[in-house]
Each structure stands twice: as C-alpha cells, then as structure tokens.
TrEMBL record:
This is Protein disulfide-isomerase A6 homolog. One of its GO terms (biological process) is response to endoplasmic reticulum stress. It catalyses: Catalyzes the rearrangement of -S-S- bonds in proteins. It comes from the Eukaryota. Residues 542-559 have a biased composition (Acidic residues). One of its GO terms (molecular function) is protein disulfide isomerase activity. Its EC number is 5.3.4.1. Belongs to the protein disulfide isomerase family. It comes from Petrolisthes cinctipes.
C-alpha cells in the first residue's frame, strides 16, 4: 500500500459520540511495511458512548500541557497553541496545533495535524474498543500513512538518507567528506532549502557526499551534535569528531563552495602527512578521560558532585566488559565537559558494587546529584554519547536572566550562545519594582522552559541602551519589547504579540523551529554597550529638587524687575 495524501475531514457531527480525549503515545509513523502494526495500534485507542457530545471551544488562558512525546514519538509535527476555535479542517500550514474540546464539562486537549501533506485534523483518545464511526477511523489511518509524503528528499535527489543506524558507519568511520543537513519535515526553512540542497548534492556527486538527517525521527542523533534549530548544516571533513557548522548562504553555490573548501583542507593535510580523525573502526578515545572509581573515592567524586556521571561496574575477566572498553573510552572523550564517565572494578570494590545491587557485568548506572538510575542505552560509543546528551539536556540548569550593564554581559549572552533573548523593560518610573520583577519572573519561567536550547537571556531598561534598540528596531511597539538574536548570523526577530508567558512562548517556539520573520541587524554588528549600574531591586524615584533659600532675596527688587518686564 502506498502512502496516501487524502485525509477525510472530521467535522462536529463525527464528534457526537466522543467521550474522552487523550494522547496517542505509541503510534510511530515509519515505513509502509509498518502500516499493519500502526493500524492495529490506532484502532485500539478509540471509544464511543451514547449521548456524548464534544465541540471545539476557545482555549483558556495560558499554554495547554506540553507532551513532547507526541512530537518525539509520532513525528506528526510540533504542538503549538491555538487559542481560537476553528473547524477541524483548518488551514494548510507547516505546524501541528492544539485544539481544545469540551467533554463532560471539562476541557481536555486533543492533537491536530496541519501540514502541507495533511489538510485535516487528527483526533485520538484512549480505549480498548474499536470505533463505531468508521469515518473517523479512516481519517486517523489516512493521517498515519502520510509519513512518506512528509519526507523532504527522494532516493533520486542525490541526498543520502542518514539514520541512527547508519550514521556512525557511513559518516564517522568513513573516509569521505560529508555535508549533512539536520532537518524537520514540517520546517518551512527546510522546505525552502530543498531545491538548492539537491542542486548542491548533484554538483558534488563523486566529490563530497551530501546527506540529510530527519531530526524528528532521530532526535538523539541530532542532540549528539548539538542541533537546536532547523535546518542545521554541518560539514564532516578532516576531523569527523569535530564537524564544522555551515553558516554560509543557503544556496547551492554556497554549499558547493563550502564542500570544495573542505576537500582542499583534507588534501593539504594528507599532503603534509596529517591523518584525518574519525575514520577506521573503534578506538579514538583517551583512557585518561575515564575516571577510576573506588570504594574510598566514590562518594566524594560521584555522590557529592554537581556533575552528572555514567559509571560502569566491570570485572577484569568479563568478555563483554573488554568489548565495551574502547567505546567507553571514546564516549568519555566526546562527553568531556558535559557528563563524566567512570569505572569501578566490582571484584575489588565490592562495597560500592553491593550498595548498588550489581549482579552482572558490565552494569552501567547514571548518577546525578546523588540520584541514581539504570542505563538502558546501547553499548557503542555513539549510543552512550546520545543517551548521555539526552540526560544532560534534560538536567541542565535554567539560565540566569542577566541585566545588560556592560559589553561583557551582552557578549556572554549573545556571542557564546546560538540565540540570545533580549528584553527591553519599561523605565523604572513607568514600571516600579513589583512591575519590573513580574516581567523578569515571566522571562525566568520561559528560560526554564527552553533551557535545553542553551540560549542567553538578558534585559535592559528602556533607552538605557538606545543604540542596541535601534540596531534591533525595538521601540516602535512600546515597552516592554523583546527580540531574539542570532549573533553569528547577525539576524533577529521581533516579538509582535503580547509580552506574556503565552505570547513569548508562541514567539520562541516559532524561532526554535525555524519559523517567523527575521531581519538583519542594522550596521551588521552589535553596537557598543553603555555601562550602567546594576538595578538594586528597589522602586525608582524622581531626583530631589534643590531647596532655594529666599531669606536673602529682596522682594522689592523682584517687584521692580516685574515692572520693567511689563
């Protein structure tokens, strides 16, 4: 059966028998051969009831509950809040969307798909029964089989499809130079890049390999290489363990030029006798990067540390442990500075091994500030790195919302991070301490929500950094105002909606997935920062006027002056 683009619209009449909405968590769109399994799973998530009625209604204030598993496990698009009631057929777009339905007097979120391939909504709810309304079931099944239509590159495009299963073998261990795009099928910028990227692939055929990774399907692979937005293009050249970001023009010529530059660098390196990194099988790690842990140092180094640890409990005679050793070393080197890797000889340090119930070898456990959990990933270096990166992203500390007081504070937030969020808050006389703190608290909540993005977050008072406001076109909509800046590309986007948790969340969600309008920074560089004092957290006050002592003033003289003026 070939994938179908036809989706039967779900209207209100179809919702009459719906009782309880929830999320479809276990259907993962994949190949056509997987259709029967997915069909069976879909059919098991339906329930009907007499006299029930569900109608789309306006969403309440604030965000609907997030469940990233919907996007991560189904690949059906990113959930975005939609505050208005719309007919489920909706409009064609590139993003998924939340809708709210009323069931038994309570508002419960359902999930709707909107994409270029799906011109309908997708409603799911949990049950053990099959639906009596086959029209709705057909709509769901049609939505489930569009995954083939959502692929950006066909086999004849020249762009090689890379996955978690072939990436290590073909890219990292291969000798070829690779240009690789990490994309999401629903991303508008990714779709715009397709014709240029295909041209580049055809032009570089036989010289440089051009590949694509669907980051929606292979999230851990994207996370391993720090992908935080789409499209992200990386060049795997001389050192495969340290790919370079491509930040040039999104044109075939720009991509080809970058590929040829990597070819010249590799040729020159080989001419001078240098070896390229990443090719070959296994190895590549430094044994010194694996920390030797014992009964005497385990508590101090691991349990009382703020660092995250992956710890292997091994036995010297264990064959599986010996096989794991080079992968463990390589992973330790790649994760240096993010997650520490240690090893405990469980045959010697029996107290620690017994404490954590080690009964077989190797046993791997994850430690984070005294908390411990089982490692359930694979045993290759790439598997270990991917698993650890996912944990590091989940457990990262929320960013600090920093006031711009000098050049250093702005540079750290914007030049050392992929994106920085710049808020311009009203003057303290227009918005006293409680008002200002409320705005900062809103930014703090959102900073925590987007902490995995590793963005910088700064704020300044209105007109305190007038040149910066001018460079980012801030001020035309009043204060507070907010911009998201990519300092590497000198591009920014302005918040046009409400300065609220909901409004900013919508804005940042679009930014994080490559949507929304951007503009170049005026002057193509950040202006110098005016050094100001750090806000003390107190209310503002007008400067006191100096009292004038009138005791020495001759009032008769003043009368004469007034007469002369008349």
């Amino acid at each position: 059966m070939s994938p179908s683009n036809e989706v039967i619209a779900i209207d209100n009449e179809d919702l009459e028998n719906v009782e309880e909405f929830t999320f479809l968590e276990s259907v993962v769109p994949g190949s056509e051969s997987d259709l029967k399994r997915r069909t069976a799973l879909a059919a098991s998530f339906w329930k009907t009831q007499e006299n029930g009625r569900s109608m789309p209604v306006d969403a309440p204030e604030g965000d609907p509950p997030r469940d990233d598993r919907i996007r991560d496990q189904t690949g059906l698009g990113h959930p975005t809040t939609d505050g208005g009631a719309q007919h489920p057929q909706g409009e064609s777009g590139n993003a998924g969307g939340w809708r709210w339905c009323e069931s038994k007097g309570q508002k419960t979120p359902i999930y709707a798909i909107k994409s270029k391939a799906v011109h309908s909504c997708f409603l799911v709810w949990r049950t053990e029964e099959r639906p009596t309304n086959m029209k709705i079931l057909l709509a769901v099944l049609a939505a489930l089989v569009v995954d083939g239509a959502l692929a950006l590159y066909s086999p004849s495009s020249g762009v090689i499809d890379l996955t978690s299963s072939n990436f290590q073998r073909d890219v990292v261990r291969g000798d070829e130079i690779w240009i690789i795009e990490f994309y999401a099928p629903w991303c508008g910028h990714c779709q715009q890049l397709v014709p240029e990227y295909q041209k580049a692939a055809q032009a570089l055929k036989g010289v440089v390999k051009v590949g694509g990774v669907n980051a929606d399907e292979h999230k851990s692979l994207a996370g391993q290489y720090g992908v935080r937005g789409f499209p992200t293009i990386k060049i795997f050249g001389l050192d495969k363990n340290k790919p370079e970001d491509y930040n040039g023009q999104r044109s075939a010529q720009g991509i080809v030029d970058a590929g040829m530059k990597a070819v010249r660098e590799k040729v020159n390196a080989q001419l001078s006798g240098k070896k390229s990194g990443g090719s070959g099988s296994g190895g590549g790690g430094n044994a010194d990067d694996v920390v030797e842990l014992t009964d005497s140092n385990f508590e101090k180094l691991v349990l009382k540390s703020d660092d995250m640890w992956l710890v292997e409990f091994f036995a010297p005679w264990c064959g599986h442990c010996k096989t794991l050793a080079p992968h463990w070393q390589k992973a330790a080197s790649e994760l240096k500075g993010k997650v520490k890797l240690g090893a405990v000889d469980a045959t010697v340090h029996t107290v620690t091994a017994s404490r954590y119930g080690v009964q077989g070898y190797p046993t791997i456990k994850f430690f984070n500030k005294g908390e411990v959990e089982e490692y359930d990933g694979g045993r290759t270096a790439s598997d270990i790195v991917s698993w650890a990166n996912d944990k590091a992203a989940t457990n990262v500390e929320p960013p600090e919302i920093v006031q711009i007081v000098d050049d250093d504070s702005l540079d750290k937030a914007c030049k050392e991070n992929p994106i920085c969020v710049i808020a311009v808050l009203p003057h303290i006389l227009d918005c006293q301490s409680k008002c200002r703190q409320n705005y900062i608290d809103t930014l703090t909540v959102l900073g925590d929500k987007y902490k995995q993005k590793s963005w910088g977050w700064v704020w300044t008072e209105a007109m305190a950094q007038a040149d910066l406001e001018q460079a980012l076109d801030i001020g035309g909509f009043g204060y507070p105002a907010l911009a998201a800046l990519n300092a590497k590309k000198m591009q920014f986007a302005l918040l046009k909606g409400a300065f609220s948790e909901h409004g900013i969340n919508e804005f940042l969600r679009d930014i994080s997935f490559g949507r929304g309008r951007t503009a170049p920074v005026r002057g193509a560089k950040l202006p110098a920062v005016v050094t100001v004092e750090l806000w003390d957290g107190k209310d503002g006050s007008l400067p006191e006027e100096e009292d004038i002592d009138l005791s020495d003033v001759d009032l008769d003289d003043l009368d004469d002056v007034q007469k002369d003026e008349l």
